[in-house]
Amino acid sequence: MLLTLSITPMQLYGQLLIGLINGSFYALLSMGLAVIFGMLNVVNFAHGAFYMVGAFVAYFLLQYGGMNYWAALVLSPLIVGLLGALVERTIIRRLAGLDHLYGLLLTFGLALVIEGLFQNEFGSSGKPYPTPPALSGAYNLGFMFLPKYRAWVIVCSFVACMATWFAIERTRLGAYLRAATENPSLVRAFGVNVPLMITATYGFGVALAAFAGVLAAPIYQVRPGMGADIIAVVFAVVVIGGMGSILGSILTGFTLGVIEGLTKVFYPEISNTVVFVIMAIVLIIRPSGLFGRAI
Questions:
Q1: Sign of torsion, CA 210 214 217 219?
Q2: Is residue 119 part of a domain?
Q3: Cβ neighbours for 113, distance < 8 A, ≥ 6 positions apart
Q4: 126 in any annotated domain
Q5: Which domain covers residue 148, as residue numbers?
Q6: Which long-range contacts (CB under 8 A, 24 or more apart) does 58-65 make?
Q7: Of the candidates 120, 138, 143, 168, which lies 20 to 30 Å from 151 by C-alpha distance?
Q8: How far is CA 5 from CA 1, 259, 264, in A?
Q9: Domain tally, the chain
Q10: pTM for this structure?
């Protein structure tokens, strides 16, 4: 098979843009997974389902609540985050201290239940979600037209990712979170409510997935299978970046999105598997991931 070399600059820039957009969602979702695993040691396979629920909550707020995109962008992550906190309190907490496999199986089953309920109620077809009027149209960059909403998604995702990294790695609250995973008894001695912190952390990680779902709604439409379509790649991003590494998830998410987009131009035959090929290579060379701690 020959590589596709006869491409125009417009095609190249277009695929680069698509790669950055996909990378934005990869980074947001994988960062949420990294937060939950790094702080709680839970492999949250229901992350894709919460991403889908976030998009549906935004759709409900628009259709039945009369709220605009900006209100949904704030309220949907809050609502889904509270749902995630409830799930942690009632279900996931029962697996504390057990092998990671139990958490993976539990959250995988939870994802199937959530997606099945939504598919039974709404079918498999997508429901349109309008682009906010303030972000309609495109910027003329001279060499290409950049849709305003796509630019907003990339910038918003990057800012959210860096703000989360800063909060966890450079603040006192983040220090307490990291310490609680290593020595919860010591943190309790300082008067910190560790169980509440764990619940809040899981809720925050789930809220990040819902936030990504709201951002994705105007681009990919709202449908029950949208989480299942992306979760495998997101897990690959987390593995490549390093399980529990927030910075690794951010950098790897954006980078793999661009690589995937460019592969569709130069070698489309492997565009759907290139992320998993990279994952296999990284696991052979560095099993802990590019930014993970060596075991």
A1: negative
A2: no
A3: none
A4: no
A5: 9-96+132-285
A6: 58/129, 58/213, 58/214, 58/217, 58/222, 59/127, 59/129, 59/217, 59/222, 62/129, 62/130
A7: 168
A8: 12, 16, 11
A9: 1
A10: 0.92
Question: Among residues 64, 6, 32, which one has the least CA distance to residue 204?
Answer: 32
DSSP 171-217: SHHHHHHHHHHH-HHHHHHTT--HHHHHHHHHHHHHHHHHHHHHHHH
Residue 149 identity (one-letter amino acid):
Y
**Spatial separation of the C-alpha atoms in residues 192 and 110, rounded to whole Å:** 30
| Rounded-to-integer distance, Cα 281 and Cα 9, Å | 30
Q: Amino acid identity of 230? A: I
Cβ pair 143, 13 in contact under 8 A: yes
Asked if 181 and 39 count as a contact pair (C-beta separation under 8 A), the reply is: yes
Cβ atoms < 10 Å from Cβ of 143: 10
Name the token pair of 17: 């843009």
Task: Give me the tens of pLDDT residue by residue for the chain, a chain 295 residues long.
Answer: 444 456 777 778 888 888 999 999 999 999 999 888 877 788 899 999 999 999 999 999 999 999 999 999 999 999 999 999 999 999 998 887 778 788 889 999 999 999 999 999 998 888 999 999 999 999 888 777 889 999 999 999 999 999 999 998 888 888 888 777 777 777 888 788 888 888 999 999 999 999 999 999 999 999 999 999 999 999 999 999 988 888 999 999 999 999 998 898 888 888 889 999 999 999 999 988 998 765 4
Q: Which two tokens stand for residue 117?
A: 């309920």
Q: Which two tokens stand for residue 162?
A: 């860096």
Q: Is residue 46 part of a domain?
A: yes
